[in-house]
Design brief:
Distance between the termini of chain B: 74 Å
Strand order of the largest sheet of chain B: 5-7-9-11-14-15
Shape of chain A: globular
Order of helices and strands of chain B: EHHEHEHEHHEEEEEEEEEEE
Helix content of chain B: 10-25%
Order of helices and strands of chain A: EHEHHHEEHEHEHHEHHEHHH
Largest sheet of chain B: 6 strands, mixed
Strand content of chain B: 25-35%
Number of strands of chain B: 15
Strand order of the largest sheet of chain A: 3-4-2-5-1-6-7-8
Structural class of chain A: alpha/beta
Number of strands of chain A: 8
Number of helices of chain A: 13
Radius of gyration of chain B: 22 Å
Number of helices of chain B: 6
Largest interface: A-B, 13 and 15 residues
Oligomer: heterodimer
Strand content of chain A: 15-25%
Distance between the termini of chain A: 50 Å
Largest sheet of chain A: 8 strands, mixed
Radius of gyration of chain A: 18 Å
Shape of chain B: elongated
């Protein structure tokens, strides 16, 4: 039985797809058979971040409508073993994701995969509800600013009341907090919310903090999930995060502003 | 030939089971269709979605004059036009009940504990606290013993966008109440985590209600319609454990 994990946030542009891609890669690297499913029908992005946009033939909606089977729609990643992508449809709208269709697809994926990572669209409408409905665990992606934190709080409320686990009164969806685009120097200058404040407001255990990094943008443009850029701070932070998710003890890194040395400051290092 | 008893329940076309529902009750005073229509328009326009396809029970207990089946047929047609679904009648004289049955309504008998469901105005959930329903002090006091049975305990955090209403009793929130969340109770409110959202105790006008919280960071607190916004709360009690109650018409916030 696969574990279904939704990557969600409420607010757009906080790093859901970046997180979903790197998280899926990280799980696959650790030997778990993983599929990343793009629920953002009409605004599909996961395939771009994963660098497989030119290999999309059939998509999630084709599978739901019975126009293709799963094996035809799944794209095998060329860099990492055990990793597949189920792309969203770019030409439909989110209503194409029916509850029954999503259930059937996830059930079929459950037979062969260990982890199903659902990349949620922004907002709290149908697409986002479908992405979270069947989740066992949720990664809540938040930026260190008030509107993002407020939206994450809203999403947590919806998870606790409208997911399948809530409706069938099972054990609640397990929640993990991921803070992305964290810039310690801006936190210390009071321009951003601090990590402790965010944890205090949301009351959800922290899984990882991803530092604001140029590597994320570069990786997105290159179609390489940033976790594969092993020399980058953001890449390492995602590797730590996946390890923690799988039960390893890893200290949180990249939380304090790096003090620039005299020479580096002098030469603008 | 198989007897019904030997069949598995899945093979039967249906199962008949009892269940308990909360229904809105329309207390009829006069069967004047024109007046009822006007009053309904007024109500429905406040929150059209709230009333859409809402089942209603007609209470005939305070109906004056005689009512015929034709009257009820006219009323049912009117209610349906406005989007409501009349399902049954209750109380009233025998002849009124007979007329209601003739018009196609069911009769609900009053259960022994029926008085627990005390009448109160049905209001759309979005109604602002500044327009809290008129206080009904006598009622609130006599029913406070009943209300104690109906304490609602919320073990999960109450998140932004969520609204929790403890009708007829107290509300205990064991965890935080986030900014953008709203908790309401006809009785008292206790919050054991930080209170950052809105808390409205005595929502039906009980001015003896209290709010007790471990850390006051609320956007708004209100008792029986007397409210205070975050900006108006004295800075010395912010983030403190407090007890909030009414002293006459004045909302008092004391540190515990």
């Amino acid at each position: 039985m696969a574990k279904i994990i939704v990557v969600t946030s409420g607010k757009g542009g906080v790093g859901k797809t970046t997180t979903a891609a790197s998280f899926a890669v990280g799980l696959a690297q650790r030997g778990h058979k993983t599929v990343a499913v793009d629920f953002d029908v009409g605004l599909r992005n996961l395939d771009l971040i994963m660098g497989c946009e030119r290999r999309v033939v059939y998509d999630f909606v084709n599978v739901i409508n019975g126009e293709a089977n799963l094996n035809q729609a799944l794209i095998k990643d060329k860099r990492v073993e055990n990793l597949y992508v189920l792309p969203a449809s770019q030409t439909r709208d989110k209503e194409a994701l029916t509850k029954e269709g999503v259930a059937k697809t996830l059930e079929e994926l459950s037979k062969t995969f260990d982890f199903i990572v659902c990349d949620s669209p922004a907002g709290i409408e149908h697409g986002a509800l479908m992405a979270m409905y069947y989740a066992d665990e949720a990664l809540i992606v938040t930026n260190p600013e008030v509107s993002s934190v407020r939206d994450s709080d809203r999403i947590l409320g919806i998870l606790a009341s409208k997911s399948r686990r809530a409706e069938e009164v099972e054990e609640p969806v397990r929640e993990h907090l991921i803070i992305t685009r964290y810039a310690p120097e801006r936190v210390s200058e009071g321009e951003m919310l601090g990590m402790d404040d965010i944890i205090e407001i949301l009351g959800v255990p922290l899984l990882g903090v991803i530092p604001e990094s140029q590597a994320v943008l570069n990786s997105s443009n290159a179609g390489t999930p940033v976790i594969l850029t092993e020399d980058s701070d953001a890449g390492q932070a995602y590797t730590d995060l996946v390890a923690r998710f799988l039960g390893d003890e890893r200290e949180h890194r990249f939380l304090t502003a790096e003090k620039k040395g005299f020479m580096r400051r002098w030469f603008g290092g | 030939m198989s007897s019904p008893a030997s069949q598995s329940s899945a093979a039967l076309p249906f199962d008949l089971k009892g269940s308990v529902f909360t229904l809105s009750v329309m207390h009829l005073h006069r069967l004047n269709l024109e007046d009822i229509g006007l009053r309904l328009d007024e109500k429905v326009s406040q929150a059209p979605q709230f009333f859409a396809s809402m089942p209603v029970v007609l209470d005939l207990g305070s109906l004056s004059g005689t009512a015929t089946a034709t009257d009820f047929v006219g009323l049912i047609t009117l209610l349906r036009e406005k989007g409501l679904v009349p399902v049954a009648a209750r109380r009233g004289t025998e002849s009124a009940q007979a007329a209601a049955v003739e018009a196609g309504l069911a009769i609900l008998s009053d259960a022994p504990g029926g008085s627990r469901a005390h009448p109160r105005e049905v209001s759309p959930p979005s109604e602002s606290p500044t327009k809290a329903p008129d206080p009904t002090p006598a009622k609130a006091v006599t029913e406070s013993a009943d209300a104690r049975n109906a304490t609602r305990v919320v073990a999960q955090p109450v998140r932004s966008g969520q609204q929790i209403y403890a009708a007829g009793g107290d509300l205990i929130a064991l965890r935080m109440v986030s900014a953008g969340a709203e908790i309401l109770a006809d009785g008292n409110i206790h919050v054991l985590g930080p209170l950052r959202g809105r808390a409205l105790a005595g929502a039906q006008g009980d001015d003896t209600a209290h709010i007790i919280c471990q850390s006051l960071e609320a956007e708004l607190v209100s008792i029986a319609g007397r409210y205070r916004l975050f900006d108006e709360i004295d800075k010395s009690v912010l983030g403190q454990a407090v007890h909030i109650h009414l002293d006459g018409d004045r909302l008092v916030i004391d540190r515990i």
